[in-house]
Amino acid sequence: MIFDLADILPALPEMILATLALVLVLVAAYGGEGAQNAKRVTRIALGGIVLALMLIWSGTAADATAFGGMFKADSFASYMKILVLLGTFGALYMSITPLAKDDINKPEFALLVVLALVGMMLMISANDLMSLYMAVELQSLPLYVVAAMRTNSLRSSEAGLKYFLLGALSSGMLLYGASLVYGFAGTTSFSGIAAAVSVDQLPLAFIVGMVFMVSGIAFKISAAPFHMWTPDVYEGSPSPVTALFAIAPKVAAMALMMRLTYGAFGAIEVEWSQVLIALSIASMIVGALGAIMQRDIKRMMAYSSIAHMGYALAGLAAGSHQGALSVLIYMTGYIFMGAGSFAIILLMRRDGQSATRIADLQGLSRTHPMLALGLMIMMFSMAGIPPLAGFFGKWYVFLAAVNAGLVPLAVIGVVMSVVGAFYYLRIIKTMYFEETDEPLDTDMPTANKTVLGVSTAVILLFFLGLSPLLDAANVAATALMTQF
Amino acid sequence: MIDNWPILSIVTFLPLAGVLFLLLIKGDEKALAQNSRFVAMWVSGFTFLVSLPLLIGFDSSVTGYQFEEKAVWLAGTGIGYHMGVDGISMPFVLLSTLLTPLSILASWRAITHRVREYMIAFLVLETMMVGMFVSLDMLMFYLFFEAVLIPMFLIIGIWGGPRRVYAAFKFFLYTLLGSVLMLVCMLAMYIDAGTTDIPALTAHQFAESMQTWLFLGFLASFAVKVPMWPVHTWLPDAHVEAPTAGSMILAGVLLKMGGYGFLRFSLPMFPLASEFFAPLIFTLSIIAVIYTSLVALAQSDMKKMIAYSSVAHMGFVTIGIFTMTEQGIAGAMFQMISHGLVSAALFFSVGVVYDRLHTREINAYGGVAAVMPRYAVFFMFMMLASVGLPGTSGFVGEMLVLVGAWHASSWVAFFTATGLVLGATYMLWLYRRVMFGAIVNDQVKAMEPMQMREFSIFLPLTFLVLLFGVYPMALLDVMAVSIQFVLDGLSASGLSLLAEN
């Protein structure tokens, strides 16, 4: 088979990053030991991400398929890729601070993140069962390794192993579902599947395949009841890794879920929307109730992310253009809330040791007023209090749900958001209403300051940029809906 | 030309400029605290001055909204930036801009730690309150309505009393739960009407079955805000734990958000459901008036007693609104403004003695009148206004509500009047126990007399209570046309129903 340039050009950003990853292998191997080299590798990786971001932003890679239709670049993919790239950039940027050195002082870290990033971008652009599975695996395997990056810590190894075992299970489900779908449709391409499902009679096995595939992806976005790995992995992994987990892979997996449901299975919306509604309700409830009991802020963020995925799925379950649009808006707010929160969680150290209990935040408003203000804004936003970003996400998600006649889902959602508000308020209470005599360390690296500043500004002024954002999300949602 | 100035936007966002300024000032702790007080005082005072053109330039003969401002926000989605005031919202705007500088003044000495943050919270609160009253877009309204919770949560939680954390959480979660149900209804309204513009929604006819649900959703939110029995329990806790100024704003303005919401949304947009549910509202309100008055009698904490009296007084407001008569609604409006002034003054009165004795237990006082005679006069005046003495604004509101209630049902009027008697009982009893009698507590003897600062807070409130008491038309004229507009809408929808049958 001969590739001509036009057939691979749409994947240019991915190819640049993949090539970069290979170069980074050499730099990591021959660049010497220690922190200096780790820093160098990370800097090069950040440069590559910026380059990919610029390429996608400028629209070089828009609206085309590549690799014989297995790869799709459209404005939906661009939108989601920008989110993933921004999120990964933020997490990686914060990992090169001197504070994080005892955690992930290894050149491989950035390299593995870049590989996972390529996987995430391919997930977003997947247009075929084959490329879907390859992309999911490419994204997952490096992440299993980085979860266990802190080799001298039992918890980190446990997190890596747990993540790997459950991730392998979900991959298996995904693969099994894919094989059933392929068996029925006779093709692996999404457009072929979409054409095959538009016939009237669907065998039960096909529906089973679809449910298995959706469940497999639900693992990746940590929707309940497939969420069990999330709290342990969040808690056990080194904090910069947790930051990455919390932001980027969720967006990529959500994009894949959207491509699959709205695209390949577009004609059987009735079938999958029931599954999504169940996942959504379960996630909202598990996320809200589970977080109440947590003492560790990373575990709490894990449950919080489960709840957030529940809200996003509520929009997705609407199965409409509006639903797709609402998920895009929701995920946009989500990555900034995640990045901003983790910018602070990464700084939670006492005498150089990571201190991530919620109680460690006591009196933060006295000792670190700016951090406390930032975290307070993030928490209010996650609780969905206007006029912050989180509110607009919820507004559009529930708008789509109500418009699709899913009023009970919306009511459960808003009631659960009140339960959720309780634990977000608890963080604010700890920071503002309580005093401490053991303050956290005061070092504040530029990276964290920058990420926190940018995220806070975006969250606070979200309403100002909402109009252009809606336009962009509208174009992206239209591209998603008119795939075939 | 001053006519073309976006006065409402300026009034709304000017306090935020003060917040920016407060964030920038530097200095050692003491200087910072003092500067913060002055900045907040000047900014809120200036905001009040800027809001005065709303009163002067207001044309009370015009139906519809004045000082309107429109701008594109989310083009093509029916959601926009729209502000304006009518006779119903304009008095509340001025009430908010007046009470904010007064409550900042009231916290001058009471707040000694984290003064800058405190002042920031108050200025943000002012923006949210004013923004909520002037919004003519439902989404904007919700943004402000809900965002009020953030500064108030912090004010109670950081500067409050011993059980402040419990009170702050209760306040926040109770209110939020009500509001999110309203949010779902707002989504449904937006989908049905295709716009969130309030005048357009008022003109839109919602199906009767839909109105029922929408009404209940909005009721969930406004009933908590007002608060109505049985969802009032957050209020006594919040008031007792909040600092004096927090209570002043809470009772003075935030409680009115519910009543304002009924008049802006429930009555004009869901007229059929409003009529259907009026008996329910009457029942709840009557229970509130009588039950909370009895509870107030049993209190030993001054602030808690006044908090319960607020619930009773707001019961009058909801009765007045749902009589759907001209007198009833005008009375409810009057009562809200009057209660805003009187309850703020009463909470401040408690604050004055609390600052000196650091207790709110009624038994710790007694004989205060002998030590602080001028204070005794102001307190008595406000206490009588709260009871509804003729010549004070409290009388006019209660009188009109009673007349309106009589139109609705003589039973409603009877029970409402019972509440009046009970109200007089506990307020007079409170006054006697605190102000008269022998001085049993030695600390009372040592209390310093009233300061100029405290005097200057009482003075404007007293003046307004007296003005509205002897010349009620000053306020009634402003509201009349807008109330008539609400009533016309109600009877028009009734007529259309008859025509359908």
Write a structural description.
The complex is a heterodimer of chains A (484) and B (501). With 484 residues, chain A is mostly helical. Chain A has one domain (5-481). Chain A is 75% helix and 2% strand. Chain A has 21 helices and 4 strands. Chain A has helices spanning 5-8, 12-30, 34-57, 75-95, 101-104, 108-125, 129-147, 154-185, 190-197, 204-220, 229-236, 239-264, 269-292, 297-317, 321-345, 364-367, 369-382, 389-403, 407-432, 446-460, 462-481, and strands at 64-66, 71-73, 349-350, 353-354. In chain A, the strands form 2 sheets. Chain A has a two-stranded antiparallel sheet with strand order 1-2. In chain A, a hairpin with a 2-residue loop joins strand 3 and strand 4. Chain A starts with a helix and ends with a helix. The mean pLDDT of chain A is 88. Chain B is mainly alpha-helical and 501 residues long. Chain B has one domain. In chain B, strands 1-2 form a two-stranded antiparallel ribbon. The longest helix of chain B has 32 residues, at 326-357. The termini of chain B are far apart. The interface between A and B is medium-sized, with 29 and 34 residues.
Write the SSE topology:
The complex is a heterodimer of chains A (484) and B (501).
Chain A: H1 5-8, H2 12-30, H3 34-57, E1 64-66, E2 71-73, H4 75-95, H5 101-104, H6 108-125, H7 129-147, H8 154-185, H9 190-197, H10 204-220, H11 229-236, H12 239-264, H13 269-292, H14 297-317, H15 321-345, E3 349-350, E4 353-354, H16 364-367, H17 369-382, H18 389-403, H19 407-432, H20 446-460, H21 462-481
Antiparallel strand pairs in A: 1-2, 3-4
Helix pairs in contact in A: 2-3, 2-6, 3-4, 3-6, 4-6, 4-12, 4-15, 4-21, 6-7, 6-12, 7-8, 7-12, 8-9, 8-10, 8-11, 10-12, 10-13, 11-12, 11-14, 12-14, 12-15, 13-14, 13-19, 14-15, 14-18, 14-19, 15-17, 15-18, 15-20, 15-21, 17-19, 17-20, 18-19
Chain B: H1 7-24, H2 29-56, E1 66-74, E2 79-85, H3 90-106, H4 115-134, H5 138-147, H6 149-159, H7 164-193, H8 198-203, H9 208-225, H10 234-241, H11 244-254, H12 256-269, H13 271-297, H14 302-323, H15 326-357, H16 368-371, H17 373-387, H18 393-408, H19 410-435, H20 442-445, H21 452-470, H22 473-500
Antiparallel strand pairs in B: 1-2
Helix pairs in contact in B: 1-2, 1-4, 2-3, 2-4, 3-4, 3-11, 3-15, 4-5, 4-6, 5-7, 6-7, 7-9, 7-10, 9-12, 9-13, 10-14, 11-15, 12-14, 13-14, 13-19, 14-15, 14-18, 14-19, 15-17, 15-18, 15-21, 15-22, 17-19, 17-21, 18-19, 18-21
